[in-house]
Design a protein that fits this description.
heterotrimer; A mainly alpha; B mainly alpha; C alpha+beta; B: two-stranded antiparallel sheet; C: alpha+beta; elongated
């Protein structure tokens, strides 16, 4: 008789779980709403008509019937100040090149540090750990000086040469980041040495071991490094600002180019175009994000970034 | 045997060359140069006048009557005040959200994605959005909403106008909660469930399980998040750069050491001050290093002791000694008030 | 009302997970006080779920769990007076061994009689001074007082086995009066009297052991936290029991698997609870350590005398440790018996296959009712009239049972069929395979509606098939015949001896296991294992003769899995 009763009663732990889930749902729901507000505002405003922008800046979305693509058309068609395509192109290729080189270098170096032996390995790793504590800001000014001095020394005249030279300095300097390399090394350390040893006893060369065993295993760590370096490169602002000063705005990166809109007082006149440009600039990242976010977040979560 | 070892050695070294070359060229050498420059009067454009000046640059930097140095220290103070509030906030909010996400309410994957999303947006887009939301005229979203004309982004933070810093604070939370949030929720998820159950069996309340299970298990992740956030916000640059008003004076713009360094480097009329800037960068760098090290120490492992083993051994020895005393007594009372 | 035989009673307990999966069916078990129960079964058989329901970590869908007659179902697990040891040990990684063992004591309050510390300790010291070797006592006190390192009172208390306040009093007396016993006693007397009169003024009454009593003369019990010294004493005691004292300051990650296991045990022991639950505690250890820990746990059980419920998938552990074994499969209890009985009298095919290493030899043989023989190929085995009678009885009864099941196929009948499937080891029909594919989900949505009203379910179909098969068996059919390896009589073929009635073959593998051979040979199309004394070495090239004695053999019904005939002697 009591079994029927107990079957319907929720026990205390089940009740608390439900309660907790409800509470967390409600809180997260509102947090998510708050989090989406700026994005909705951005997208909404980019579709607002000039009239709407003047009269209703307080709405998130355009008034009904006032949706317009005018702002998109204005920067896509005309040769306006916002050279969004050039910026996007610059940013994309340079960020990808940066990411590719970083991953390659990290894989290679971490492989050497973990699976090959050479004299002074320990000292080398220790030095890297020590160097991690040295903030990069110390080197900014000399690097800028180096940049200028070498440029003068090479006396680059052509536009293409200047472009290549500048982008060399955008892409290369960051690729030897220690944090990412040590992240990779720590992952390699967690690979059982037996795997490598057995492959070696099967007659695999170092190159084969690297390509066929290590790289596939490191996929999630690679993804993590890609994520870190890509967002880092895409968002970097100080360094491009330094070395692009005085260059044509066509060569800028997206992040730098878009600061044009924040340099001046935001006004109804520029808001629409600014928002449309932002939406457009965000598109590539958002598309990649939508497809990979679950994996990305899981990978980031499970790879255990620890101190 | 020996030969093959040498060969292996050389292969390893050859493979290391690219990394080491880039590392030396773009990390070590600039820093060393920075150190050298800081003792020089240095001008990269006109190298003729370059000479060593000893500690002159540092003296100037610590001379608070110098207007430029005063700017540096003021910017440092401003940023520091901001960081004291910002860094803990960027741990507490992500941690709270991560805890809530880990209860896996319906739709948590969606919530998680939305909260993480701003982290992949570039700082200038963030600036455009928040600059427009907090626009200083009546066309700003919030001004229009409340019918006010608050100049949100004008003025110097903590110096007559607190609002701009508030906007930067809010924008930073929105923009940068994601990364820490994801790292911490991963750490939370990796806590073995049996630990919670063990704590429950041992009689621990919800609060106890947070204190004794949750927090200790994510301590290292909290450590790394704090470290990263601290370093990032000591080098504060992008947010104040994009969230400002065109009316601001230079003085109101330079609100962090990074902005200070950047401003004087970018502006070619200050090119003869390169040595001084290097000195400022080194002083600032050392301060960052100290903060970083202190953070690591605080969050790091406690020192190992053998307190309990020693105590146990001593008490066991004492109990042995007591036997002689008790030899005469046939009955002794049991130890203490008994607990059933 | 409840005897020691029914210390914990588990009645009709079932578990259905929120996703609709049924993990435990109708679990009934009475656990006696101090009994060592092992729940054994393959992974996913519901054994851990059962344990977790007892512990209170998992909700009970229906049924009751009682301890000493008190319903536990809705009691939070911390109030259940149980301790659990997990497979992963679940040690708090940030705490050292001391902290881990002490943890339950540090966070809980325990009911204790309220004591007048002053009077208690005065009495203690008085007794000590009167009865012990006073010179040695003074000597000890003087030594400890001058030694550095603090915590003198704790040291004195440990040395003389008295309470902490007693030790403090003693040290004060020594500091004030030196080595004059008379002055000590006088001072104690004075303090005692002062406290007594104070008590009288406040109206506090004490009994002879200095516990505060209420108006009816009953001791006042109040929950209180243990003092740090009490905790230390208990932890050191426990660590001593488990040989953990050298590791007290180590963190879990610095310990080996066996040490971590002992810490986990220590944390359970220190709670001083009457029931221990263990969830596969040894499966993370290596083979050798597992053996040692196995005996250590049994020893511990015998010493502490707590009732233990132990879950494992390893039948050897079950056989060696248990007072009683509960064999489970797919959520059903297959058999509850002593290790001897589970081994020698398995209730069904599943138990027969699962218990024993090497496993029981089982063959499908044809039963010829008319000739009263079991045949397999050329081999025939006479079974005798008694078995034929038993066979008829068995199938008549089973057929009746199934007719009843099929006549009114309801939820109980469905469960019965599932139970039979769990015993025979057949895969349950109509197993709902839930695909995560969205398309499949949608398909299922539509499929369900069209399927629901249609004819008999797969289980009912199966029941009818089984009924038909049972009816066919009445005139003889295939049965599963089994024998334990050690019951097979086997010898090396000797020239000239008559092996009529024996099965002569060549072994496929001969493994020397120290004192005996494990001889494999093919019989009835299956690999068969037998034991042979190592005195006569065999190799696969030798011929062996095998004799099966029907008395020592088991016969199971392959349709229902139940045993038809067990050991006759």
């Amino acid at each position: 008789m009591s079994s029927r009763k107990t079957g319907k009663l929720l026990s205390k732990s089940e009740r608390t779980i439900r309660k907790e889930k409800t509470v967390s749902f409600i809180i997260l729901f509102f947090v998510t709403l708050l989090w989406m507000l700026p994005l909705v505002y951005m997208v909404g405003t980019s579709f607002k008509s000039e009239y709407d922008l003047q009269t209703h800046p307080e709405t998130l979305l355009p008034s009904s019937g006032e949706w317009t693509l005018a702002h998109y058309q204005s920067f896509l068609s005309s040769d306006s100040d916002a050279r969004i395509f050039a910026w996007l192109g610059n940013s994309l290729w340079s960020a990808l090149a940066h990411v590719g080189l970083t991953v390659l270098l990290d894989l290679l170096t971490a492989f050497v540090l973990v699976f090959l032996d050479f004299k002074g390995k320990r000292v080398f790793v220790k030095l890297l750990y020590l160097w991690m504590a040295v903030p990069g800001v110390i080197g900014t000014a000399p690097m800028f000086a180096m940049f200028a001095a070498i440029r003068n020394g090479l006396s680059i005249q052509s536009a293409a040469g200047s472009y290549a030279y500048i982008y060399f300095w955008i892409v290369v300097p960051g690729i030897s980041g220690i944090f990412n390399m040590l992240l990779m090394r720590n992952f390699f350390l967690s690979i059982p040495r037996d795997i490598v040893d057995s492959a070696r006893s099967d007659g695999a060369s170092n190159f084969k071991i690297f390509m066929r065993i290590i790289v596939p295993l490191a996929r999630s760590t690679i993804l993590l490094i890609v994520l870190f370096t890509f967002t880092g490169a895409w968002n970097s602002l100080n360094w491009p600002q330094l070395i692009f000063s005085g260059e044509t705005s066509k060569w800028w990166t997206v992040t730098m180019g878009l600061t044009k809109f924040t340099d001046s007082q935001a006004s109804a006149a520029t808001t629409g175009v600014a928002m449309a440009t932002s939406v457009f600039a965000m598109l590539p990242i958002i598309i990649v994000f939508l497809f990979t976010q679950n994996k990305m977040i899981d990978g980031m979560a499970s790879s255990g970034i620890k101190g | 045997m020996k030969k093959s070892k040498r060969r292996k050695n050389s292969v390893a070294v050859a493979l290391l060359v690219p990394y080491v070359a880039v590392f030396l060229l773009f990390s070590v050498i600039p820093c060393v140069m920075g150190f050298v420059f800081s003792f020089m009067k240095y001008n990269p454009i006109m190298p003729d006048g370059n000479k060593f000046v000893g500690f002159d640059n540092y003296e100037t930097l610590f001379n608070f009557n110098n207007t430029v140095s005063l700017k540096f220290w003021k910017s440092f103070g401003t940023m520091f005040l901001f960081d004291i509030v910002m860094v803990p906030t960027l741990i507490v909010i992500p941690l709270t959200l991560a805890y809530l996400i880990n209860l896996h309410p319906p739709g948590y994957k969606f919530f998680r994605a939305v909260i993480y999303l701003p982290s992949v947006i570039s700082v200038s887009v963030m600036g455009i959005i928040f600059g427009s939301l907090f626009g200083g005229d009546k066309f700003g979203f919030f001004n229009a909403l409340f019918g006010t004309e608050i100049k949100w982004l004008s003025g110097k933070p903590f110096d007559g106008d607190f609002l701009r810093w508030l906007v930067i604070f809010i924008a930073s939370i929105w923009w940068q909660t994601g990364t820490n949030f994801v790292i911490l929720s991963g750490a939370l998820r990796n806590i073995p469930k049996s630990l919670y159950e063990a704590c429950e069996m041992d009689g621990g309340s919800r609060w106890r399980s947070i204190v004794h299970v949750t927090l200790p298990n994510i301590k290292s992740s909290i450590g790394i998040c704090t470290f990263n956030t601290l370093i990032a916000y000591l080098g504060l640059y992008g947010q104040p750069y994009v969230l400002h008003s065109a009316e601001n004076t230079i003085d109101q713009e330079i609100v962090s050491p990074m902005m200070f360094i950047q401003y004087y480097l970018k502006n070619s009329s200050y090119v003869n001050m390169t040595g001084y800037i290097c000195a400022a960068a080194i002083v600032f760098g050392i301060i960052v290093m100290i903060f970083g090290t202190v953070e690591r120490r605080v969050m790091g492992e406690r020192k190992r002791t053998d307190k309990y083993v020693t105590e146990y051994n001593r008490l066991t020895a004492d109990a042995q000694r007591g036997i002689a005393v008790l030899a005469d007594s046939d009955s002794t009372t049991g130890g203490g008030s008994n607990v059933e | 009302m409840t005897s020691d035989k029914q210390f914990i009673t588990i009645q009709n307990v079932e578990k259905i997970y929120p996703n609709g999966e049924k993990a435990v069916y109708n679990f009934n078990l009475d656990i006696a006080r101090n009994e060592f129960i092992v729940i054994v079964g393959p992974s996913g058989c519901g054994k851990s779920t059962t344990l977790r329901m007892i512990a209170g970590l998992e909700d009970i869908t229906s049924g009751e769990i009682r301890m000493e007659g008190e319903l536990l179902n809705f009691k939070p697990c911390k109030d259940r007076k149980m301790a659990i040891v997990f497979q992963s040990y679940a040690l708090y990684p940030q705490m050292n061994v001391f902290g881990n063992i002490a943890f339950p004591l540090t966070i809980n309050k325990y009911p204790a009689p309220v004591t007048d510390e002053t009077l208690f300790s005065c009495n203690e010291v008085k007794t000590l001074v009167k009865q012990s070797n006073f010179a040695a006592l003074v000597q000890l006190l003087s030594e400890i007082s001058v030694e550095r390192g603090g915590k003198r009172a704790e040291r004195v208390a440990t040395a003389l086995n008295i309470s902490l306040s007693g030790a403090e009093r003693l040290l004060k007396l020594y500091a004030r009066f030196g080595d004059s016993a008379e002055q000590w006693l006088a001072e104690l007397q004075r303090q005692e009297e002062a406290q007594r009169s104070a008590n009288q003024q406040k109206g506090i009454a004490l009994n002879e052991s200095f516990h505060v009593v209420d108006a009816e003369g009953k001791e006042v019990i109040r929950p209180r936290k243990l003092t740090p010294f009490e905790i230390k004493k208990k932890v050191y005691e426990t660590a001593e029991k488990l040989d953990l004292t050298p590791y007290l300051d180590k963190l879990p990650r610095e310990l080996s698997g066996g040490q971590m296991q002992r810490v986990a045990l220590g944390r359970a022991i220190i709670k001083n609870v009457p029931v221990f639950l263990m969830d596969e505690p040894l499966s993370n250890l290596d083979a050798k350590l597992r053996l040692t820990m196995r005996s250590e746990i049994v020893k511990l059980h015998n010493r502490i005398g707590a009732t233990t419920v132990y879950v494992t998938h390893d039948q050897t552990e079950a056989m060696t440790m248990a007072d009683r074994i509960v064999v489970m499969s797919r959520g059903f209890i297959q058999q509850i018996d002593s290790p001897e009985d589970v081994y020698s009298a398995p209730a069904n095919l599943f138990v027969a296959k699962f218990i024993g290493s090497p496993a029981m030899n089982l063959w499908d043989m044809r039963f010829d009712r008319a000739a009263a023989t079991l045949t397999c190929g050329d081999f025939t085995l006479a079974v005798g009239k008694e078995f034929v009678r038993r066979y008829d009885e068995f199938y008549a009864e089973k057929t009746r049972e199934f007719e009843q099941i099929c006549s009114d196929f309801d939820e109980t009948a469905r469960e019965k069929i599932n139970r039979i499937l769990s015993a025979t080891g057949e895969q349950p029909q109509n197993k709902k395979v839930k695909s995560k594919n969205l398309l499949d989900k949608i398909k299922r949505l539509f499929a369900k509606k069209s399927k629901e009203p249609a004819g008999p379910s797969a289980e009912e179909q199966l029941a009818r098939e089984k009924l038909d098969a049972l009816r066919n068996c009445l005139e003889g059919g295939t049965v599963a015949v089994g024998i334990r390896p050690e019951r097979i009589v086997i010898e090396k073929v000797v020239e000239g001896k008559n092996y009529n009635g024996w099965y002569v073959t060549k072994p496929t593998i001969c493994e020397l296991l120290g004192g005996e051979y494990s001889v494999h040979f093919d019989f009835c199309g299956k690999d068969t294992v037998a034991r042979l004394d190592a005195n006569s070495p065999v190799t696969p090239s030798d011929e062996i003769a095998v004799k099966f004695d029907f008395e020592t053999m088991y016969v199971f019904d392959p349709i229902t899995g139940d045993v038809i005939k067990g050991l006759t002697r």
